[in-house]
């Protein structure tokens, strides 16, 4: 199916959504928030802020949550993808951003793509990877599937799902035993090496081959090539982060960079490739429950005080709920109202049936989107927004921390209005007379409270075609990579050393057994986008709907052929879809996207087991069985 753009506000009456004026819809939306906050306090409110919209929208979204409502319960889809990267990088280096710039993969010697289908999901970044390969870099791909990315690699390490820590540990042990670690860097810039060394000792190449399924020779080659390289880039995405132990996975990769000194120098670094176009910016703007704008910790009293001065409102001295916790709190009746901007959790959350049940328990749900999504169809009030990428002014921040201007080129359709205009109208109805004369005024307010954005005026952003943070002053041009301080000889300039992490292997939560013997992993295709809301409106011969991808051996064993409709079931749900045979898969592995949930709801199958540190769900590992629908005669 395809969606039409929302052109009018909608309100629910007698159980159905009907057209309304802006006045009526805004009044209804504001009244519901007021009612719930009065009855149950500010923490009964939760906001999901849109990672597809601008930095300015996200700044206003979190300010609405903290100032108008008075809670820190604000989050976004960062929770479903790279919250573990932010948590892991922050724990190691004190900052959650990717360390390198895109240009650096062109100027490096080794590129490791770990759990990343960049050829499909990050095609612009992948162009830089291809240029790097063309200039002579060696590329490794670590992925259970021999993806389009892996097909460009010098070596593909096809590991079993959820065995990244054993693989990384074996790489580390091999580097240590071969004497290829960077002793000077370790002594100067890190702590915890001895404990780490001891912890990886059991992971010999033989043991790791047994657990990961990757031949010992391939593990050895990755270890030696990465460690011997002058410069090396380690890039990862959801193959690492959508697991119940995702932050540990991220730390396992960071350990490799600390061991070899491949961080803090031009051409050597750690790059989590972020998901939605502005998910990096959304987090930087404070649309997360634990950080104020500029990634400043809410628990720091001096920081809170600065914001309280700027905003004239006390900020709660505690972290708010993240997306996962918000959904749990809905089930407990603790969160009773939700303002959901540009997210479609009904189809994107793991265990979607559980998510629908929780959202339906809300007293008051307001959805602000550009389409009438399945989530919007559950709302009490639907507010039609402009599409930020072409109908609004502002800025986006990409995975290399580069802030760039976006400019309004089109008017939104019908009565749809800018996200910021809508939020200010709601704020006004809730007693805060907010008025911004355009996106630049919002941006300048942000620059006054976020030191790392201070030197990024719109004028400078236009002149320089984007600037990477940190950018603390009007004349600063920082190096394109982070953590150069780790290489300083002066201990004061070097600052806090980066800790190695001691980690333990923990296999996927959803165990394989006789009833559910196959491992389902889910992900993306080049031609579709997430829950399909924005990409289902076109047909192309290249594009097929949802399929259940199996390797030829498994298809034979199950007696199914390409195109045959089969049933796939997990411990949570069951759906049917046609078989697609893909030799890029290994026996025992099944792959599906989540791009066509109106026809096939893949997330009815996935498990809501989450990483305790980041709250990210294990989208990448469910136990399933695949059955023929009609028995052969
Ligand atoms: N065309 C397109 N582009 C997109 C999107 C889209 O929907 N369509 N979505 C955007 C978003 S929101 C995001 S977050 C990014 C995601 O970008 P990616 O993370 O690159 O995309 P995925 O396909 O979800 O997963 C990456 C790979 O992880 C592998 N994998 C699965 N399990 C494991 C494991 O246990 N270990 C390892 N090492 N690998 C594993 C999968 O086989 C898959 O190839 O893409 C963004 N770009
Ligand atoms: N099985 C499985 N499930 C997954 C994943 C997986 O790998 N496997 N990946 C997870 C990941 S990484 C992500 S990021 C999530 C994505 O989950 P969601 O963010 O819930 O899904 P999207 O389809 O990207 O929805 C984006 C919404 O934003 C709206 N929108 C676009 N532009 C604007 C704008 O300017 N303003 C407003 N107000 N709205 C706008 C769109 O219409 C759409 O409804 O899915 C997660 N779910
Ligand atoms: Mo994502």
From TrEMBL:
Signal peptide interval: none
Tree of life domain: Bacteria
GO cellular component terms attached to this protein's record: membrane
Entries under Gene3D superfamilies matching the protein: 2.40.40.20, 3.40.50.740, Dimethylsulfoxide Reductase, domain 2
MF (Gene Ontology): formate dehydrogenase (NAD+) activity; iron-sulfur cluster binding; metal ion binding; molybdopterin cofactor binding; NADH dehydrogenase activity
InterPro entries found in the cross-reference section: Asp_de-COase-like_dom_sf, Formate_DH_asu, MoPterin_dinucl-bd_dom, Mopterin_OxRdtase, Prok_molybdopt-oxidoreductase
Protein keywords: Iron, Iron-sulfur, Metal-binding
SUPFAM superfamilies: ADC-like, Formate dehydrogenase/DMSO reductase, domains 1-3
Domain Molybdopterin oxidoreductase: 5-428
Molybdopterin dinucleotide-binding domain span: 518-622
NCBIfam families, per the entry: Fdh-alpha (TIGR01591)
Protein name: Formate dehydrogenase subunit alpha
Species: Nonomuraea cypriaca
């Amino acid at each position: 199916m395809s969606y039409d753009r929302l052109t009018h506000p909608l309100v629910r009456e007698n159980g159905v959504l009907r057209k309304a004026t802006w006045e009526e819809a805004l009044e209804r939306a504001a009244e519901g928030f007021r009612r719930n906050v009065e009855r149950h306090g500010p923490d009964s409110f939760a906001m999901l802020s849109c990672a597809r919209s601008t930095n300015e929208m996200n700044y206003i979204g979190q300010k609405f949550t903290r100032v108008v409502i008075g809670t820190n319960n604000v989050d976004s889809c960062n929770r479903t993808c790279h919250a573990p990267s932010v948590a892991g990088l922050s724990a190691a280096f004190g900052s959650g951003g990717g360390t390198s710039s895109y240009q650096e993969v062109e100027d490096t010697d080794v590129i490791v793509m770990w759990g990343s289908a960049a050829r499909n999901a990050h095609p612009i970044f992948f162009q830089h990877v291809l240029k790097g390969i063309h200039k002579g870099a060696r590329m490794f791909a670590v992925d259970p599937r021999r993806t389009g990315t892996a097909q460009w690699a010098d070596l593909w390490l096809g590991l079993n799902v959820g065995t990244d820590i054993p693989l990384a540990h074996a790489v580390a042990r091999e580097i240590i035993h071969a004497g290829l670690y960077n002793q000077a860097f370790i002594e100067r810039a890190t702590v915890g090496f001895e404990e780490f060394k001891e912890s990886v000792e059991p992971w010999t190449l033989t043991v790791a081959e047994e657990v990961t399924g990757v031949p010992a020779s391939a593990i050895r080659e990755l270890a030696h090539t990465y460690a011997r390289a002058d410069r090396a880039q380690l890039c990862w995405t959801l193959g690492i982060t959508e697991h119940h132990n995702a932050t540990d996975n991220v730390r396992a990769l960071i350990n490799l960079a600390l061991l070899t000194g491949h961080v803090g120098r031009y051409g050597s670094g750690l790059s989590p490739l972020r998901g939605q176009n502005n998910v990096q910016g959304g987090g930087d703007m404070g649309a997360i429950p634990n950080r104020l704008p500029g990634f400043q910790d809410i628990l720091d009293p001096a920081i809170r005080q600065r914001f309280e001065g700027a905003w004239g409102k006390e900020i709660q001295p505690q972290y708010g709920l993240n997306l996962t916790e918000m959904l749990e709190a809905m089930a407990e009746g603790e969160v009773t109202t939700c303002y959901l901007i540009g997210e479609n959790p009904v189809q994107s959350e793991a265990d979607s049936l559980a998510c629908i049940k929780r959202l339906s328990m809300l007293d008051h749900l307001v959805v602000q989107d550009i389409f009438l999504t399945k989530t919007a169809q559950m709302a009490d009030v639907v507010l039609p927004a402009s599409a930020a990428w072409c109908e609004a002014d502002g800025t986006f921040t990409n995975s290399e921390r580069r802030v760039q201007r976006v400019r309004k080129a089109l008017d939104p359709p019908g009565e749809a209005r800018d996200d910021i205009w809508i939020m200010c109208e709601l704020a006004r109805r809730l007693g805060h007379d907010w008025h911004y004369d355009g996106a630049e005024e919002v941006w300048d307010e942000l620059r006054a409270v976020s030191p790392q954005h201070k030197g990024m005026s719109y004028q400078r952003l236009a002149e320089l075609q984007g600037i990477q943070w940190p950018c603390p002053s009007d004349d600063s041009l920082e190096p394109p990579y982070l953590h150069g301080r780790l290489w300083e000889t002066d201990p004061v300039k070097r600052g806090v050393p980066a800790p190695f992490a001691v980690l333990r292997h923990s296999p996927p939560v959803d165990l394989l057994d006789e009833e559910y013997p196959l491992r389902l992993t889910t992900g993306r295709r080049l031609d579709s986008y997430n829950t399909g809301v924005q990409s289902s409106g076109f047909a192309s011969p290249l594009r097929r709907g949802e399929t259940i991808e199996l390797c030829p051996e498994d298809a034979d064993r199950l007696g199914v052929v390409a195109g045959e409709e089969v049933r796939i079931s997990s411990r949570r749900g069951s759906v049917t879809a046609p078989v697609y045979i893909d030799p890029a898969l290994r026996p025992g592995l099944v792959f599906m996207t989540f791009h066509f949930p109106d026809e096939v709801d893949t997330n009815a199958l996935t498990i809501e087991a989450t990483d305790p540190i980041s709250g990210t769900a294990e989208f990448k590992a469910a136990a399933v069985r695949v059955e023929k629908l009609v028995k052969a005669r």
